[in-house]
Design brief:
mainly alpha; Serine Threonine Protein Phosphatase 5, Tetratricopeptide repeat; 11 helices
């Protein structure tokens, strides 16, 4: 009999993770991107679903896992207990990882998911993994300033202002008018 409960627990444990990330209220859906409501809410029309299926291609099939991750992230900001917060962040990483494994590198949301993973790793205090994610993001699309900004901020946090400046300069080669990058570079130059 004990084996039965062990097997049942092992089979149902992945479902517990998914249930915690599933948005249930209109307020939760309101804090998520529109595509999450379209994919997961029963009020979505077939026409809306068709539009997002066309925009996202094959990745649309797995989109709800990314929506779970975003919902876990939203909940992690509201959780007081440190362990529960870490659990929510780890669950978000797991869901994003699932989508990344089941979609192509060309999936439209890959850069966004990679950035979110970097942010989550930062919040978990794993700066090395965060840096790796930001570097992956730059490799996916070097024209996205947010990756350079986040990477530069991490270098600065670690006391390497020289590398922080270099990262910003690399980003400005692709986006010379980026306010985000120019502002950070100006601030770093003023500090030295």
């Amino acid at each position: 009999m004990n084996h039965f409960f062990l097997i049942l627990t092992l089979l149902l444990s992945p479902l517990v993770s998914y249930a915690g990330g599933t948005p249930k209220t209109d307020a939760e859906f309101a804090r998520l991107p529109v595509y999450c409501r379209v994919k997961m809410h029963n009020s979505s029309t077939p026409a809306e679903k068709k539009v997002w299926r066309k925009k996202l291609g094959h990745g649309y099939l797995h989109l709800h896992h990314y929506c779970y991750a975003l919902n876990f992230l939203n909940h992690s900001h509201q959780i007081d207990k440190k362990k529960a917060n870490r659990d929510a962040l780890k669950a978000a990483l797991k869901e994003i990882g699932y989508v990344q494994r089941h979609t192509s590198k060309q999936f439209a949301l890959q850069p966004e998911m990679t950035y979110k993973k970097g942010v989550i790793y930062e919040r978990l205090g794993d700066y090395s993994s965060a840096m790796k994610e930001y570097l992956k993001g730059i490799a996916i699309n070097p024209r996205i300033p947010a990756f350079y900004a986040a990477l530069s901020d991490l270098y600065k946090k670690n006391g390497d202002e020289g590398e922080a400046k270099n990262v910003l300069k690399r980003g400005l080669k692709y986006k010379p008018k980026s306010k985000m990058l120019n502002k950070r570079l100006k601030k770093l130059k003023n500090q030295t």
